[in-house]
Amino acid sequence: MTLYKKIILSIPVMILLLIVSGCGSNEKELVLTAQQEKEIAERLAPIGQVVLKKDIVDTISNVASATPAPKIELSSGSEHIVKMLNSGVGGNMIFEPAVIKVSKGDTIHFKATDMSHNSASMADMIPNGATSWSGPMNEDISIKFDTEGVYVYQCDPHAMMAMIGVIQVGDAINLSEIKELSGEKKSTFMMNSDRLDTYLSQL
Ligand SMILES: [Cu+2]
User: Fold this and answer.
1) How far is the CA of 158 from the centre of ligand 1 (A)?
2) Which of 37, 93, 123, 138 has the most CB atoms within 10 Å of its CB?
3) What is the value of pTM for the model shown?
4) Ligand 1 mean position to 168 CA, how many Å?
5) What confidence tens digit (pLDDT) does each residue in 19-65 have?
């Protein structure tokens, strides 16, 4: 091959190289504004967080152990008032006070402060020999407690929301039986399922 032919043949290669390098030098670098970078980061960021059930349980138990419910003192006097409320200090659909300690022979007046509530003893959750009760809706009801022990009662329409209350009359002689049954009763609550345990822990 002569030098002339070599030069002729290399021309297309050189042109090609010029085109390629030219493209490279003309290409503008993609420069993003701070706003654009922020928008991209937001779109790439994961939505929400993965929360494991274990973490929730740990958090709840930490909170519970950090702030144990205070023990309830014996209420003075022989007549006591428990309000039936849509909203109270301890939450919604609630008796106030939800836990009360009284003396044998005392009377509790359940007050229909808010509408759509009643007070009714829960099956198997009162002392042996004690009389059950089931108050009418939207009405006050007074109950005299002559049998010692722990009583658990509910509001019938809001039982699933754990609108319940606990009464200790004299000594809590049946507390272990009540605690044994609490797991089964608790499983019927759709909300506030910790209320029963919390209330019983306050006795
Ligand atoms: Cu109710």
Assistant:
1) 5
2) 93
3) 0.68
4) 21
5) 445 444 445 567 888 888 888 777 776 666 666 665 655 555 555 45
**Distance (Å, whole) CA 35 – CA 43:** 12
**Phi/psi at 93 (5° precision):** 50, 80
Residues (pLDDT < 50) of the chain are 15-20, 22-26, 64
Residue 84 · residue 119 · CB < 8 Å: yes
What architecture is the 71-201 domain classified under in CATH?
Sandwich (2.60)
**Neighbouring residues of 150: CB distance < 8 A, sequence distance ≥ 6:** 125, 127, 166, 167, 168, 169, 172, 173, 174, 175, 178, 200, 203
Query: From the CB of residue 30, how many other CB atoms can be counted at a distance below 10 Å?
Result: 6
Give the per-residue pLDDT at 18: 45
CA of 181 to the centre of ligand 1 (A): 22
Rounded to the nearest whole angstrom, what is the distance from the C-alpha of residue 106 to the centroid of ligand 1? 24
